[in-house]
Design a protein that fits this description.
Helices cover 46% and strands 11% of the residues. By secondary structure, it is of the alpha/beta class. The mean pLDDT is 97.
Length: 390
């Protein structure tokens, strides 16, 4: 962070947080009268009654709804375009993203394409995107049922162009959710391994945002508290998914990390992972981040020594005397969550894929490399992948 930072803060999202607060969907002022509810192609939203609950609460608020239920864990442009067509045909006037980050991210992208002509990639400003200006977007209501992406508190949406194998984050002031309702009671059904993957995604949002050269005093506050909460409570939530206190702490940490994304930014760890899951969409985003994290953070250990020590102190509540204390605490946290030593090969990634992943990361999410503590060379990026292959 600069010694004399200049920054502004404008996050136009109304956040409603708390156990049981989903009921507020029936009484909050909503941005329209007909919603397109966007959910994943999985079964959990229907199996656990979350979809029916949301439909019922919207009805109480005199809002009708249509459901689009095709979103993949790594959401695709194809489904964004299909859902936008449904939205226009059904004359929906706002979008509800219900579920994990993939559903809420998709809701934001659908909100853009419901109001703008052409193809979604026409508006993407990097890779093969054409960078056209977005002039309008439908309002979005975010209802996360996972704790990880923080997309309920930031403008970013990450979508994969399956034709070009590009996974790119994008957003602007129009893609902030209008309203986000975060109810930890709707997260009790997440299995342990996904709880860990998602929680570490939030952790890395906070840690990367704390190390970014665009960090601000307010993003630092959000980041250190998110790091503290996740270190303390994520292992508890992984071990006992019915522990509502732990779920609530992790959910709040995820939202805080989303606020970090709105006031600072991710750095190149996210660029590198997006390149991995662009080619291997079965790779969960959080798992990919975990797999490369030890080698990645080791790379910057001597560039941000004081910041590493501050993160270590937030995690352990002990005085830190060396930057490697942070990496030691990170490894300990991964072991406690039973995700240490994840192998990239488990998802089919091969060593010979790494050079094209280096190039993909540069081409699609190159801007994040400019925020790193020091500029990474291609050899350094390749080395991180190689060390993480196991």
């Amino acid at each position: 962070m600069n010694t004399n930072p200049v920054f502004s803060l404008h996050i136009p999202t109304r956040i409603v947080f708390g156990c049981g607060e989903i009921k507020r969907l029936a009484t909050e002022q909503l941005p329209g009268k007909k919603a397109l509810i966007v959910i994943s192609s999985g079964t959990s939203m229907k199996k656990y009654g979350y979809l029916d609950k949301v439909i019922g609460l919207l009805k109480e608020n005199e809002v009708s709804s249509v459901v689009f239920d095709q979103i993949l864990p790594n959401p695709t442009k194809k489904h964004v375009m299909e859902a936008a067509a449904v939205c226009q045909k059904e004359e929906c006037d706002f979008i509800v993203g219900l579920g994990g980050g993939s559903s809420i991210d998709s809701a934001k992208a659908i909100a853009i394409m419901a109001c703008n002509k052409g193809d979604y990639w026409d508006y993407i400003p990097s890779g093969t995107g054409k960078g056209r200006p977005v002039t309008n977007a439908l309002p979005v209501v975010a209802i996360p049922t996972t704790a990880g992406t923080g997309t309920e508190a930031d403008p970013w949406t990450v979508i994969t162009n399956e034709e070009t194998q590009e996974k790119i984050g994008f957003g602007n002031k129009l893609t902030f959710p209008t309203l986000s309702i975060i109810d930890p009671e709707m997260m009790l059904s997440i299995p342990p391994h996904l709880t860990a993957y998602q929680g570490f995604d939030a952790f890395f949002h906070a840690a990367e945002g704390f190390l970014a050269n665009c960090a601000t005093p307010i993003s630092d506050l959000y980041a250190l508290e998110a790091i503290r909460l996740l270190y303390k409570y994520l292992p508890v939530a992984v071990a006992d998914g019915r522990n509502l206190k732990a779920r609530a702490k992790v959910a709040w940490a995820s939202t805080l990390a989303g606020l970090v994304e709105s006031t600072s930014n991710c750095i190149s760890e996210h660029s590198m992972e997006h390149a991995m899951s662009a080619y291997y969409p079965a790779l969960p985003h959080g798992a990919g981040l975990i797999a490369i994290s030890e080698a990645y953070f080791e790379t910057f250990r001597n560039d941000s020594m004081k910041r590493y020590m501050k993160m270590a102190e937030a995690m352990t509540q002990l005085k830190s005397n060396r930057p490697s204390d942070f990496i030691d605490a990170l490894v300990r946290m991964q072991k406690e969550c039973k995700v240490y030593g994840l192998k990239l090969s488990d998802w089919g990634i091969k060593m010979e894929d790494f050079p094209k992943m280096v190039q993909n990361a540069r081409d699609t999410m190159g801007a994040l490399f400019t925020l790193d503590p020091h500029p990474l060379t291609d050899d350094e990026i390749l080395g991180i992948y190689q060390k993480s292959f196991k």
